[in-house]
């Protein structure tokens, strides 16, 4: 038997759980619900955290790879630079809150408020809860992606859905 392929070596996870989950969420917005499986399989054979982004980028459509790399790099930078990867796994609880705040600010707050107001025209005051929940569950959305996700709450009325999109997105 070759010692290089031992099961214990393949099970080393180079990332803290919070960073892994954040990468899964980011990848999920690009490739769908298969993202956690892709991340877990990648982490099984990548022993160095610096390789993780490049390996995951191979699963992302080519037109979205550079943005994925930028956002994934932001996630990875939340790890303290002077802390080795193996010991940062025990400090994950201090990473997650600041990372969530940083990512939530990627969309202009004024645009988020406009989304709430436009959505409220169709569904009422619950709109603000839906917008906040959407941003919490999918913090890496672009403005256009946010509008599309929120528009799915209006599928019963295609006219309202179209009006919602037109009110928030520039015409092509």
List keywords for this structure.
single chain; 172 residues; mainly alpha; 11 helices; 0% strand; elongated; disordered N terminus
Average pLDDT score? 75
User: Topology as H/E string?
Assistant: HHHHHHHHHHH
Distance between the termini: 61 Å
- What class, by secondary structure content? mainly alpha
The number of helical elements comes to 11
Unreliable runs, pLDDT <50, ≥5 residues? 1-11, 80-105
Helix content: 55-70%
Overall radius of gyration: 19 Å
Strand content: under 5%
Shape estimate? elongated
Taking the sheet with the most strands, its summary is: none
What is the number of E strands?
0
Oligomeric grouping of the chains: single chain
Characterize the structure shown.
With 172 residues, the protein is mainly α. It is built from 11 helices and no strands. It is elongated and about 50 Å long.
Short recap of the structure:
The chain has helices at 7-10, 17-31, 35-45, 49-57, 65-77, 85-88, 92-104, 109-123, 127-137, 143-151, 158-168.
List the helices and strands and how they pair.
Elements: H1 7-10, H2 17-31, H3 35-45, H4 49-57, H5 65-77, H6 85-88, H7 92-104, H8 109-123, H9 127-137, H10 143-151, H11 158-168
Helix pairs in contact: 2-3, 2-5, 4-5, 8-9, 8-11
